[in-house]
Amino acid sequence: MTSIPVDLKAGSLTMRRTLPQSLVAWLFLAPAAVIFAVVLIYPMTYSAWLSLFQWDGVSPNKVWVGVENYVELFTANRVFWIALKNNVFWSLLSLVIPTGIGLGLALLLNMAFRGSSFFRSVFYFPAILSMSIVGLIWSWMYHPTLGLINQSLAAIGLTGLENNWLSDPSIALYSVFVAATWHNAGLPMLLFLAGLQTIPKEVMEASRIDGATRLQGFWFVTFPMLRETTMVVVAITAINSLKVYDIIYVMTYGGPANRTQVLGTWMYFLTYNHNEVGLGTAIAVILFGLTLFFAIPYTRHMVRN
């Protein structure tokens, strides 16, 4: 066992006696607070400041325009509204489909059967891949002539269902969303599975003895006891859906005809492709505000519990 030098012990005791306890706590927190301020607070504040200027990102001169960038986005930028609508649509679908699939898989995998651990790994595997890799995999699957999907449809005689999945403006966003669902269902499944395993078996047995069917047992017993887990899943899913960027960038690059733009990709294109740093950072501020709408209740709930 390692012994603590007597001098070090004495020094520590002396510091505790001479410094107020709150000051000692602040001294320990200071390094993390400095890193947090430099890495997060300063870039966010500077981005918000840049959103009040017209700037190409290169010129040494920035032109103060106040809130005109925000006014232009909401009144004259057609693609911004497409991106905002796609983000809202993406978030609503994400709250229903991947979350629902994750819950269904968790209910199935919570049953005792041979190979359940193997299937848990199989269904969770896509979640450990990066969105960029998922986008590349599904881009090949959606390839009009060489892709697995169109070739499978042709093999079973459903040639009428073959499509240009990523170049047809009417279905491109849905096609990308299917790929994202394949990736995003794993985390809700894991969280719901952990929540299900905390429910005492006696509660479920009691509901069966009282005559509850499986559906009634789920709706009146299991689901209410998953309330905490559901709140965590909904908050994480909503925040992640607002941040969607990489899979859109890899699979469609915002096209065709900007039909799959979301706030993240349009912010990038305005900033780096069109050199409209003010407009791009204004979108970043709007996106930050939308994220806070979900992040603040989630954080408060986690702190209280």
From TrEMBL:
InterPro entries: ABC_transporter_permease, MetI-like, MetI-like_sf
Keyword annotations: Cell membrane, Membrane, Sugar transport, Transmembrane, Transmembrane helix, Transport
Any Pfam family the entry gives: BPD_transp_1
Coiled-coil annotated spans: none
Annotated GO CC locations: plasma membrane
Gene Ontology annotations of biological process type: transmembrane transport
Gene3D superfamilies (alphabetical): MetI-like (1.10.3720.10)
Principal subcellular localization: membrane
Cell membrane in keyword set: yes
Domain ABC transmembrane type-1 per the UniProt entry, residue ranges: 84-298
Membrane topology, from the record: Multi-pass membrane protein
Spans traversing the lipid bilayer: 23-42, 88-109, 121-141, 171-196, 217-239, 277-296
Localization per Swiss-Prot or TrEMBL: Cell membrane
Family: Belongs to the binding-protein-dependent transport system permease family.
Protein name per the record: Permease component of ABC-type sugar transporter
Species this chain originates from: Microvirga lotononidis
High-level lineage: Bacteria, Pseudomonadati, Pseudomonadota, Alphaproteobacteria, Hyphomicrobiales
